[in-house]
């Protein structure tokens, strides 16, 4: 039941994010005089709708997106260069142009989107992704400033029993005992000094330990309100191509509230990671497909679709782990929604129609054409013919559907383990 609640919370958060994204398009479009005939969250059959003064607002059954219908996005035939040819592609262009022209009411051609200046078009099309970017920053900031980030401290959470051969290897009978266990460190001990040098953070402690491989160290710990002095010899291990000192313990952690700009810093850092994922998305989809048909294991870092993310949200709410409080669950859900909004921002900025980035690119190209014409003292050029991009838009849309379907199947048949 709790897992279902987590999924419902995620779906609501997704719908709110999509709805605000579409508002980011609609508000500036109306401000600039464009008629917006429809505002819908979701796709497929309409569950609910209401007709406003000139816009129909509603919710559709499939919560995988949304749209606002901006009237007149495609210029009429007389405003652009004629399309040569009479094949399938020409028919697609003609049909898209005809449908767009039919949406323009008599006497309202001046309200058509294609009449906007290039920079107004950029504002309208960037408005949606920008809202998602702001939401990501706000959510990350709320978590990091209001709740804090788990930060390693100098309290011992667990004592390793051995010095493993490699960083993630399990202990074997041939591995030597860890210096921490030899010294008598116990769970709950707080290390306060090493060789008389005070340590206040985990970074302080690791800096001393790693710099002294094979050295004998005196460790001061606080145990049950008393100071206990321990001595041990650090092991020498090879990690990342360097010889470092090894004690053998897992640190505890505590929530540490961050500064007011931490949400912005996290957003910048994660945006880079999301862009790397997008750049390698075809390869990731291929491996997800192989996992679906049982040809390989699904990697824990595999890209996930909406089903997989919803499943994780359910696991967060349903988790029954000591110390995993309602506050921490709430923080994780907010982080999940922040990451989702960041992904919506980055993905929509890909410069391909029908994504927002494609329309932004066409508007920028219009600005370049206008500027070049002014420099040459030529008449204003014709508007960029968005209709010519429709065959590409349909192809991209088809690819997105296939990729989405593969991820849905992968999330169901070969889910990512967390």
Number of strands: 10
- CATH class category label of the domain at 151-256: Mainly Beta
Report the C-alpha radius of gyration, rounded.
29 Å
CATH superfamily of the domain at 151-256: PDZ domain
Structural class: alpha+beta
Known CATH architecture of the domain at 151-256 = Roll
Strand content: 15-25%
Query: Number of helical segments?
Result: 11
Percent range for helical residues?
A: 40-55%
Notes on the protein architecture:
Helix content is 48%, strand content 20%. It has a domain at 151-256: Pdz3 Domain (Roll). A four-stranded antiparallel beta sheet has the order 5-4-6-7. Strands 1-2 form a two-stranded antiparallel ribbon. It has a two-stranded antiparallel sheet with strand order 3-10. A hairpin with a 2-residue loop joins strand 8 (235-239) and strand 9 (242-246). The chain is built from eleven helices and ten strands.
Question: Descriptors for this entry?
Answer:
single chain; 10 strands; 418 residues; 4-stranded antiparallel beta sheet; 11 helices; Pdz3 Domain; two-stranded antiparallel sheet; alpha+beta
